[in-house]
Amino acid sequence: MKERNNPIPEDIVYPFSGIPTFLRSKLVTELGDLEKLNPTIAVMGVPFDEGCPYMPGSRFGSRTIREHSLRFSRNGYYDYELKKILLKEELSRGRIVDIGDVNVIPTDVEGTFHRITQMVETVMKKNRMLITLGGDHSITYPIVRGISQPIHVIHFDAHSDFAPIYDGYQYTNMHAFRHISQMPHVKSLTQIGIRSIRDTSVLDSIAAGNRVVGMDEYREIGPKNIAQVVPEGEPCYVTIDIDAFDSTLVPGCVSAEPGGFLYNELRDSLGAIAERNPIVGYEMVEVAPQLDVGTGITSYLAAQTVIEFLGRICEQPWWKEKYKNNRETEAVTFQSSIENKV
Q1: Distance in angstroms (rounded) separating the CA atoms of residues 342 and 107
Q2: What rounded mean pLDDT belongs to the chain?
Q3: Cβ(194)–Cβ(160) under 8 Å?
Q4: Would you give the distance in Å from CA 69 to the centre of its chain?
Q5: DSSP sequence for 39-50
Q6: C-alpha pair distances (Å), 239 with each of 91, 106, 189, 190
Q7: pLDDT for 100-141, tens place per residue?
Q8: Pairwise CA distance, residues 23 & 75, whole Å
Q9: The pLDDT of residue 85
Q10: SS3 32
Q11: Sheet order of strands, 41-46 included
């Protein structure tokens, strides 16, 4: 073959090739390797959908969200509002790792929930931020259970997921926030975008003292001001159900409802929250790829939402201060590696 004077750069890769880790980050499945690498961000998959009383399928969501994350450059993405490339350092310096999936055993709901909680505790004990790709919304309960510090929970959804608990009927995607609201380390629960007319248990959530913001009120408040629903500067965990988006945007969702968020509304809301409050972790749930159109637009939308939220988090002063020591250690290690090569 003729030698090329202008060869294709080795870092140019396409979405149909490579191992589908999130944003092509390093796959780390051994605890020892996690401690050695000491990343600031860990991505976890929970392919569980046995909390769906109606129609399953979101067990495949974590996989397809990862696959669609390969469509984004491993050199970061361009933010049109900030007019700069975001996540470039996080990706190039290996600050993001994919820790694979929780071991989900079919029909062993309580055992799976126990393993979810264990993995959360393992990841977060070193002050890392956890990103979870579901799975159905029942997984939020064991995730929040594994967080030790006091937090505010911010919940974007079309439904309150606050169904009454009965013996033998308490671990569905309709029950998670009934459990979470009773946890002593959860300082507040704010539910935004709630609008399903089938959801009568929202009255129980309001009666329990939770802040419920419907779409009409949300649009009065606006995306830039919605972050004021929690005290500024206090740690938050954010959970995003893909059905928070309007049903026209998410064909690959079992529970989609009309009248929901446009993409820029939810993106800007998440960005505003990141500006005001430290984020200890967040999740994307309820993507059901087998229902989606051929392009996989719902998984793509989920991936972009997760990525843009992460980009905005990593731009915040609180984030840079929190991981200042990590970056200083990283700089020394990087300099040593250069000297060794020389």
Answers
A1: 56
A2: 92
A3: yes
A4: 13
A5: -SEEEEEE---T
A6: 23, 24, 11, 10
A7: 999 999 999 999 999 999 999 999 988 899 999 999 999 999
A8: 10
A9: 97
A10: helix
A11: 26-27, 96-101, 41-46, 129-134, 279-285, 236-241, 151-156, 186-192, 211-213
**For residue 192, what is the enclosing H or E element?**
strand 186-192
Burial class (CB in 10 A: 0-12, 13-18, 19+), 251: middle
Note the pLDDT tens digit of each residue in 52-90. 999 999 999 999 999 999 999 989 999 999 999 999 999
Residue 78 and residue 49: Cα distance in Å, rounded? 34
Element of type H or E holding 220: helix 215-221
In angstroms, the CA 241 to CA 252 distance is 12
Which amino acid, 213? V
**Residue labelled with tokens 């000297």:** 339
Token pair listed for 38: 């000491």
Hunting for tokens 């995003």 — which residue is that? 240
Q: Which of 246, 257, 207, 238 is nearest to 306 (CA)?
A: 238
Beta bridge partners of 169: 166
Q: What is the mean pLDDT of residues 13-29?
A: 90
Q: Which CATH superfamily is domain 25-334 in?
A: Ureohydrolase domain (3.40.800.10)
Q: Is the pTM of this model over 0.85?
A: yes
Tell me: pLDDT of 11 over 90.
no
Alpha carbon distance 149, 171 (integer Å) = 23
